[in-house]
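Job type: complex structure
Entries:
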Amino acid sequence: GENVGLHLPTLSVQEGDNSIINCAYSNSASDYFIWYKQESGKGPQFIIDIRSNMDKRQGQRVTVLLNKTVKHLSLQIAATQPGDSAVYFCAENLTEKLTFGTGTRLTIIP
Amino acid sequence: KAGVTQTPRYLIKTRGQQVTLSCSPISGHRSVSWYQQTPGQGLQFLFEYFSETQRNKGNFPGRFSGRQFSNSRSEMNVSTLELGDSALYLCASSLGTRGDKEAFFGQGTRLTVV
């Protein structure tokens, strides 16, 4: 995959369990955050976003939590499925420029 | 609604050559951003175009350039290719206005420099 050279944090989760992926962002002025999922050989796929005036947003099976005090973002995936296996990136947006974290590789154990 | 389309999907070039990559954004999107993804550096921002003007620029050398056309399609050019330019080049499109920042990526162009 595209990120094998980086020391990617890895999370292994049993199928059916919930997954929590964490991300620390760098700029306290960032006003918009996105979580992306990237499968091998594909571009990043938009999962969910959150603006800085919110601290929680829910989607289908996913929830994003934002803690601006400690500049921390998390992605919760409920009832993890084999198709959730991928690298997950958080990105912060400041003036239309996305800055990505290094990513977390999520592996699902059958 | 068609997604972001990048062409070509794969490209092999030799050192010293130049290359042009193309990105067609989602219909109605006026902002196109380019990113380089490598195993060693992850995803790095190259530049962003909005309404045919470069609005944002990352920290890449001048060999990397881009442009945007009136129909919002964008091209990225890399001149005097180096081995280290081998990467997955991704473009993302968005409406580009302050209130709408959702960015959607294409599949990328895999460039290999030999």
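Summary: The interface with chain A takes residues 4, 6, 31, 33, 35, 37-40, 42-45, 48, 50, 55-56, 58, 88, 90, 92, 94, 96, 101-108 of chain B (CB under 8 Å). Chain B is about 0% helix and 55% strand.
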